[in-house]
Design brief:
Elements lengths: L1 H18 L3 H9 L8 H10 L1 E5 L4 E3 L7 E14 L2 E6 L5 E2 L1 H6 L6 E14 H9 L2 H15 L5
Antiparallel strand pairs: 1-6, 2-6, 3-4, 3-5, 3-6
Helix pairs in contact: 2-3
Length: 156
Amino acid sequence: MPVGIALSWLGLRAMERDALVPLRAVGLLRESAIFAPLPQAEVERVARSARWLTIDAGEVLIREGDAGDAYYVLESGSLRVTHDATELRVTDARADGVGEIALLRDVPRTATVTATVPSILLTIRRALFLEVVAGHVPAHEAAVQVGEARSGSAGG
């Protein structure tokens, strides 16, 4: 009997751990222009799959010409976006994202993104980004608008 209770307790603990909502990630995604239109359940699903990434000043996050494998949402720090070594913009706005152009258009990265100070980002893998954004009209429209606004100045 004690063994059965212990095994049941371990199973319940594993289910509870998997059911926890990562509030920090959900809060950041809710501030993002692309993810804000999504229903809460979808935001929570993205938040559970996303991974935190910390990069140092001078570290390259995205390299122009590389394959687009993820979308990044800035929690804190600052990122410089360049195309052919020309600075296009610097962003330090919380919940601003980079990398949508390559994902939405299925093209190589259109810019290089480098941290100007230590930065913390939420990483959303390509497949999940496309599944969630393409499957929700308002989120897809927001992503396309962001991409179009940046395409004249490249955006990753």
